[in-house]
C-alpha cells in the first residue's frame, strides 16, 4: 500500500488539457490540492472547474521566467507550500530541418526546455521547505528513444529535459527532492488530435497494444513518483507507451 498524498500541494504546468489535465485529475482524485497552468484563461478556468476535487488555475506562459515566478507565488498563496511540481507544458509543432525557422526553433526550446527549467527554479525554495519535494517532468519517447521526421527541435527539447533531469537530481538529492520523468508514447490528447487521423491511425498500428494511451496512464505513473514510497528513486525515467519502442520492425509489432 502506498502512503496517501492527500493534502499535498501540486503544480501542473500545461494542466488545462491533455496529459497535464489528466495528471492533475489523478492527483486531485487522490486528495491532493492542485494548481494547473496554461495560457488560455477561459480554457484554464473551465479545466479547473472540471477537475474533480480541489483545483485552481493561473494563467502563465512557461517560456517567461516572470510567469513561472507567478505560478510559484500563486501556489504559495493558495496552499502555503509546494510539494510536487509537474513540468508538463509542451508543444510539438512539426517542421523538417530545411523549413525550420530560427523563430520556430526558439519557440520549441523556450517552451519545452527553458520552460521546464524556469518552472522548477521558481518552485525550488518551496520544494526544499516541503521535506518531500517531487519534480516530475513530462518528456517523451521522441528524442530520448525514437525519432520522427519533422521533430528535430522537439526531439532535442525532450532529450534535453533528460540531460537537465540527471544533474538536477544530483543537485537536489541532499534536499530530499527527487527529479524523475514520464516518457509518454502516443497518448490521446487534444494536441495529438491536431496531428490528424492519419497520424493517429499510423501510430496505433505501430503500438503492440494497438491503442493509444490515455491521460490517466500518464497520471498514475506521475502519482507513483510523488509517493513517499518512491522517495529513493531519482534521476530516472519511465516509458508509458503500450510497447511502442519495442518492435525492431513494423512486422515485429505483431
Ligand atoms: P496538449 O493537448 O496540446 O496540451 C498542452 C498543454 O500545455 C495545454 O494545457 C496548453 O495550454 C499548455 N501550454 C502550451 N504551451 C504553453 C506555454 N508556453 N506555457 C504554458 N502552458 C502551455 O498537449 P499534450 O499532448 O497533452 O502534451 C503535453 C506534454 O506531453 C507535452 O510536454 C508533450 O511534449 C508531452 N507528450 C505528449 C505526447 C502525446 O502523445 N500526447 C507524447 C509524448 C510527450 P495553453 O495552450 O492554454 O497554454
Number of strands: 7
* SSE pattern: EHEHEHEHEHEHHHE
Report the radius of gyration as a whole number of Å.
Answer: 17 Å
Distance between the termini: 35 Å
User: Which strands sit side by side, in order, in the main sheet?
Assistant: 3-2-1-4-5-6-7
- CATH class division: Alpha Beta
Give the name of the CATH superfamily.
NAD(P)-binding Rossmann-like Domain
**Secondary-structure class:** alpha/beta
Overall domain count: 1
CATH topology: Rossmann fold
Mean pLDDT: 97
Q: In this structure, how is the largest beta sheet organized?
A: 7 strands, parallel
- Which hetero ligands occur in this complex? NADP nicotinamide-adenine-dinucleotide phosphate
| Range of strand content | 5-15%
* CATH architecture tag: 3-Layer(aba) Sandwich
**Portion of residues within helices:** 40-55%
Number of helices: 8
Q: Give the uncertain stretches in residue-range form.
A: none
Question: What's the shape?
Answer: globular
